[in-house]
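To: structure subgroup
Subject: Chain for Friday's discussion

All,

I'm putting the inputs and outputs inline so they're searchable in the archive.
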Amino acid sequence: MASFAFKQFKIDQNHAAMKVSTDGIMFGAWLSLDNAKNVLDIGAGTGLLSLMVKQRLPDLTLSAIEIDEQASKDASHNIACSPWPDIRLHRIAVQEFESLDKFDLILSNPPYFQASLKGENAQRNLARHTDSLSFADLISSFLRLSTECGRLAIILPADGAHRFIEQAQSQGLFLTRQCNVKTTPSKPVSRIMFELSKVEQALATESLCIYDGNNQYSAEYTHLCRAFYLKM
């Protein structure tokens, strides 16, 4: 059984195309949960981000959306076996998802390949390519489902992040947080974690390097993620 054990929960990932990754763990730890009461996880995959959010703030209300049947199997199992079985998992496309209660925080580790060649694994293509969830769809879903002061938190490769931010700003959203991520000190920025809001405010910027010069987790990455890794 393919699984990944964290300090307070375990992720079984027998069915999902996209497995637990450093990106996901880093993003789940970086998210700001300030004033978050009703949260939506779009593209929940194995349920990793939802479970990390509930570990950090167990009393908030959390809904998760996953379109893929196989990934939903893993997420449903992982949620049911966790300390937070009250997470509401919906197997549905976000374009079709409706909620009477609006969300003050929406988060996503979305598909990001837009013009690259696809492999033979259709399930992995669905998880990695934007055919099922374009940037425009994600932005419009956020505008539709969020509160007046709602926030949208995303992680993307650097080039995709810049395109996403430009599209979001053209829709009247404001960039409020940005973290530029390097894998090692000598490499360029490869990932950007960022937060957009319906409300304008000063932009807070930061940087993060995952590994130090000795190819060990950096002190800053360890500080960010140590509440989750079983051995850190």
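Points worth raising on Friday:
Residues 6 and 127 are 23 Å apart (CA to CA).
Residues 158-170 form the longest helix (13 residues).

D.
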